[in-house]
Specification:
- With 269 residues, the chain is α+β, with helices and mostly antiparallel strands.
- The strands form 4 sheets. The protein has a 5-stranded mixed sheet with strand order 6-5-9-8-7. The chain has a two-stranded antiparallel ribbon with strand order 1-2.
- The radius of gyration is 20 Å and the shape is globular.
Length: 269
């Protein structure tokens, strides 16, 4: 569960737009909403010179940049944040109050997108799927689909289901996320009845495995952590997502920590 603040960057990519000012008047064919957990707004300026010209620096140098864009609320859990980003409203409007909550009828805690009427697609098993069924407001993607009579295409892709589903809304063409146990890409029967061929082909190539048995090192070459498979305190194997989804930290010195965080901006749990 993320405990730090969330920053959202709305990135509008405009083809054949070279002049900075023209990005504000353009009619883009592609809109990408990029959400980076724990990426504070000032990082775009603070680390501007360290970003590549075709990476994050491109958004501020050639895109429409609005540094004073805020959501006036303090609920910084990821699910409410994703829902606010997609819908433009707060929890009182979109209904997503936390990442998960107690459901009396089910007598258990359920995630904001867990949907027992759907099934996971992309891996073997009979796990419950996920959908935007708890969302109470339409998203930008929903309105885009409506305005174009369904001709626009809307997709969500993220490491977690809630991040892929909540910003895109009810009418998305698809949402894909990683299975926490294996790292395979999955979706649910809310979107498709069977895994698209490209998903099956991609998963069959075991791309996720290349992130195992890797080491995190600081600027001095000291190993801060490893993604080598191992058992947790309960004696059970730690899931793929837990192995690769954490950015290690160090407290040996503030300078070393700053150096480490600078190189590992972006992913922490």
């Amino acid at each position: 569960m993320l405990r730090a603040k969330i920053l959202t960057i709305l990135c509008i990519l405009v083809a054949a737009t070279e002049a900075f000012s023209s990005a504000y008047q353009a009619s883009p064919k592609l809109v990408v909403i990029l959400v980076i957990d724990q990426f504070r707004g000032d990082y775009l300026d603070r680390y501007h010179d360290e970003f590549g010209p075709a990476g994050l620096r491109m958004f501020t140098d050639k895109g429409a940049y609005f540094p004073a864009c805020y959501y006036d609320y303090a609920n910084t859990r990821t699910a409410p944040g994703h829902a606010s980003i997609g819908t433009g409203t707060y929890t009182s409007g979109h209904g997503i109050l936390a990442n998960e909550w107690w459901v009396p009828s089910a007598k258990k805690s359920m995630s904001s997108v867990e949907d027992g009427s759907t099934k996971i697609i992309g891996i073997e098993g009979d796990e419950p799927g996920a959908s935007p069924h708890n969302l109470l407001a339409d998203t930008l993607g929903d309105e885009l689909r409506l305005a174009t009579q369904g001709n626009s295409r809307v997709f969500g892709i993220a490491l977690k289901d809630r991040a892929a589903i909540l910003p895109t809304g009810f009418s998305a063409n698809g949402a894909y996320w990683t299975d926490h146990g294996t790292g395979a890409w999955v979706t649910s029967t809310y979107y498709v009845t069977e895994a698209p061929r490209w998903v099956a082909n991609f998963n069959s190539q075991k791309h996720a495995q290349k992130y195992l048995n890797q080491e995190w090192k600081d600027a001095n070459g000291e190993v801060l952590g490893s993604t080598a498979p191992h058992d947790g305190a309960d004696g059970k194997p730690i899931e793929f997502y837990e192995l690769v989804g954490r950015t290690p930290t160090t407290t040996k010195s503030s300078s070393r920590a700053n150096s480490s965080s600078r190189k590992n901006l972006g992913r922490a749990r």
